[in-house]
Specification:
5-stranded antiparallel beta sheet, 6 domains, D-Maltodextrin-Binding Protein, domain 2, 21 helices, signal, Sensor_HK_TwoCompSys, Beta-Lactamase, kinase, transferase, 28 strands, alpha+beta, 5-stranded mixed beta sheet
Length: 800
């Protein structure tokens, strides 16, 4: 009765939870006749979701979507009685691409922008996601962004629409860009930023982690993100039906959806540091009490030990003798080796449990049986001969393999070992039986495995070998060469195994030194080794081979190398052909770049000389007209002055065009050109630029000077567009036979290995450096700036 009463109470307490978990009944949506007719014809719709927690995620174990937007669409589906097909996308761009391809019909959780109105029909907002300011919980007060100073660093994800809004509306903020919201909160915890700005959805996802339990919301920036349902533009009735379905969802359900998925949740009190400190103090007190109790019990135990010491000492010797006897008997009875004591008449006087279990006899059933009953080959004559040999010490044949007959008549393969023993006044031969069934099975499996290995190695399209060092002579030998050697190099395994042959004599003479170096290093250190190069067949043909060998240490301490020789001739030839093709393309690109620079220089000279000369003549003619006719008509004088100003502007435009095509400063040397370009960069961007160039540089060809100058222009353009730097350093250094140029900025930086959108800036820089015969290195980290270093040879290369 008590158990039933407890179950009734638990069920009564769980009734509110069951009622709360029960899904609501679908509401009735009032639609117009045209809308209802369209909906009846289009019950099956395709939903697109952007997979971003907590809006939408995919559970691979359950194979279903979940999240705030998923629950919203499920409510729409119940209200409108839709048959939905779900699709998930990694980002907004993939979702829009699927919409343009006609793969989805509508998508929840979209923000309306001027650009997105061309592709979507949007509903009214169904959820408001505020942008929150987060700070430390200790001493947290309301924060107003207008009152923050430059010392209060604010972390925000960049690039983002939120960062653009803060930069344009709060000029006083000291913004620090981070790649994601987690790092923004970590900067606040680490004291590197005073506050972090992020939306409520991401805060609700991260606030569930105990790491961010010391953070709290201290403000709202007033820029909420309004979530809408977007549908395809060619179905306006779908947008109207979805709008009616959204209006039918009660506001209370939307509020519960917001609280369940987007409301920030903070760790429980048990996860705070103070709770664990108090708990540790309590455990410390309990430990002190336990130690005091233990000390008291130890004192009582010593009193009892003194009382029992005398009685214990009297039993020690007796127990030791009994224990030794029991251990001896137990060891004999439980041994895995069968033991039989046999008298001179070949009758068994003692058999341990292992012998009885091994032969299948009951306990005591072997006693007084003649040995010939279990070993048919031991007749009386042979037994007496073995007895004589064991008694006189001639034990040459006292260990041999045999087969014993079990109780059920089956034969058991065993190893028999005989030993003579005298016990009290009697003599015995002790027969030791060892079951070798598993050993024979292992030997058979080993032989089968070796045969299978040889069959596999013989069918491998290459040469399989084993290399080991002779322990006596210390020389290398090949104990195994597969049959594939004849198909690969034309030699039989026996020919390759000859001491004066081996794999080294198969290697091409020009590659033999490198092969010896790689193999000798591996053999000296007992390491794996790998080598690629050319080998010669018996017919003299040249092939490319890939030789790999792995080290394995045997049980006796010897080290062997198991390896394979693969024929990679076809792949290597394709690789060499591809490398040659790439080199030809790079030479063609260098030639085209040189032709283009020469054409730019020619056009710059023609623009500067021809147009400059014509403009000079025009200006002189205009001055003559001004002297001759300006006094006759005041209006004409004003017109002539205006024309002179236009000619002056045209002069400046001609200079700018000629400079853009080929700066004349290049004729003064690369050092002057670098200084001139740095000053132009400072004037254009107002970013200080520190330049260090040597006083005396060796002569540099016009093509290399122009190429190095174009590399500097492209680097400074990247700094101006992307780096958001405060200072730039340019250094030109003469290092032996090379000229090195380094451009360093203290901007935002980027992850060098991270995937980036399609951009040919760095690709163009690298190809231009390779065309000059130089090398380029790029070093950058997010928030740590960027360093670009380019080195080109000073020695003039021969033109093909």
């Amino acid at each position: 009765m008590k158990r039933l009463r407890c179950l009734w109470v638990i069920g009564w307490l769980c009734l509110p939870l069951i009622a709360q978990a029960r899904p609501p009944l679908p509401a009735q949506v009032a639609l117009e006749p045209a809308q209802q007719q369209w909906l009846d014809e289009h019950r099956s719709l395709r939903v697109g979701l952007v997979l971003q927690a907590p809006y939408a995620q995919f559970d691979r174990r359950l194979q279903q979507f979940y999240g705030a937007n998923v629950e919203l669409v499920n409510a729409l589906s119940q209200n409108l009685r839709l048959d939905l097909t779900w699709r998930g996308f990694e980002d907004q761009a993939a979702l829009e691409h699927a919409l343009q391809a006609g793969q989805i019909d509508f998508a929840p959780g979209l923000a309306q922008t001027p650009a997105s109105l061309r592709d979507w029909l949007f509903s009214d907002p169904y959820m408001r996601v505020p942008q929150l300011v987060v700070g430390m919980r200790s001493g947290a007060v309301a924060v107003e962004l207008e009152k923050l100073t430059a010392n209060d660093r604010v972390a925000v994800r960049m690039p983002s629409r939120l960062a653009d809004y803060l930069r344009s509306n709060y000029a006083n903020l000291n913004l620090q860009g981070v790649p994601n919201e987690r790092e923004a909160l970590q900067l606040v915890l680490g004291g590197q930023a005073a506050f972090a700005v992020l939306d409520e959805a991401q805060l609700s996802r991260l606030s569930r982690e105990s790491e961010f339990g010391d953070l709290a919301v201290v403000g709202d920036i007033g820029l909420p993100q309004l979530l809408r349902v977007g549908s395809r533009r060619d179905w306006p009735l779908l947008a109207e039906v979805l709008e009616r379905g959204l209006q039918a969802i009660p506001a209370k359900e939307l509020e519960q959806l917001h609280q369940r998925w987007l409301q920030p949740k903070y760790p429980r009190f048990s996860e705070s540091a103070g709770f664990w400190q108090n708990l540790a103090l309590l455990f410390g007190m309990l430990l002190l009490c336990a130690l005091a109790t233990l000390i008291w019990r130890r004192r009582q135990q010593r009193v009892l030990e003194r009382a029992l010491l005398a009685a214990r000492e009297s039993l020690v010797q007796r127990q030791a003798r009994e224990e030794a006897l029991r251990l001896s008997q137990f060891s004999i009875d439980q041994s895995t080796v069968g033991i039989l004591w046999v008298n001179w008449d070949s009758h068994i006087r003692y058999a341990n449990h292992a012998a009885e279990r091994m032969l299948g006899f009951a306990e005591g059933a072997l006693l007084e049986r003649p040995l010939i009953d279990i070993e048919p080959s031991l007749g009386m004559d042979r037994w007496l001969e073995l007895w004589r040999r064991a008694r006189t010490g001639d034990g040459a044949d006292l260990q041999f393999e045999s087969q014993c007959r079990c109780f059920d008549g089956s034969l058991l393969p065993v190893d028999l070992s005989l030993s003579f023993m005298r016990f009290r006044d009697a003599e015995y031969l002790v027969v030791y039986l060892t079951d070798v069934t598993e050993r024979r099975r292992a030997l058979a499996a080993l032989r089968e495995s070796e045969a299978r290995l040889k069959g596999i190695a013989g069918n491998v399209p290459g040469l399989v070998f084993r290399l080991e060092r002779d322990a006596a002579a210390g020389e290398l030998e090949f104990p195994y060469i597969s049959e594939g050697s004849e198909a690969l190099v034309g030699y039989t395994p026996a020919q390759i195994q000859q001491p004066d042959m081996g794999l080294r004599n198969l290697v091409h003479p020009q590659d033999r030194a490198d092969y010896h170096r790689v193999q000798d290093i591996a053999l000296a250190g007992d390491h794996d080794w790998s080598w690629q190069g050319r080998i010669l067949t018996r017919a003299g043909d040249q092939r490319w081979a890939d030789i790999k060998a792995t080290t394995r240490r045997l049980a006796d301490g010897r080290v062997v190398w198991d390896g394979v020789v693969w024929d990679i001739t076809a792949g290597k030839q394709a690789e060499l052909a591809l490398a040659g093709s790439q080199e030809q393309l790079r030479e063609l690109s260098a030639h085209l770049e040189s032709v283009r620079e020469e054409e730019k220089a020619r056009i710059a000279r023609e623009v500067h000389d021809e147009l400059g000369q014509m403009l000079t003549v025009l200006k002189l003619e205009l001055s003559m007209c001004e002297l001759a006719y300006a006094e006759l008509d005041p209006g004409l004088n004003e017109r002539l002055a205006s024309m002179k100003r236009l000619i002056t502007q045209l002069f400046q435009l001609v200079r700018d065009v000629a400079t853009a095509l080929r700066p004349p400063i290049l004729d003064a040397g690369i050092a002057s050109a670098v200084e001139w370009q740095a000053r132009r960069f400072e004037a254009r961007t107002h970013i200080p630029c520190l330049v260090q160039v040597p006083e005396n540089l060796p002569p540099l060809s016009d093509a290399k000077a122009t190429g190095l100058f174009r590399i500097l222009q492209e680097a400074l353009t990247n700094v101006m567009r992307h780096a958001q730097a405060h200072t730039v350093q340019i250094e030109l250094v003469h290092e032996g036979e090379q000229l090195r140029m380094t451009v360093i900025d203290d901007g935002a930086g980027f992850a060098v290995d991270a995937p980036r959108p399609a951009s040919f800036g760095l690709v163009g820089l690298r190809e231009r450096v390779l065309m000059l015969g130089g090398s380029m290195s790029l070093d950058s980290e997010p928030g740590e700036g960027t360093s670009l270093s380019v080195a080109i040879p000073l020695k003039q290369e021969k033109q093909p």
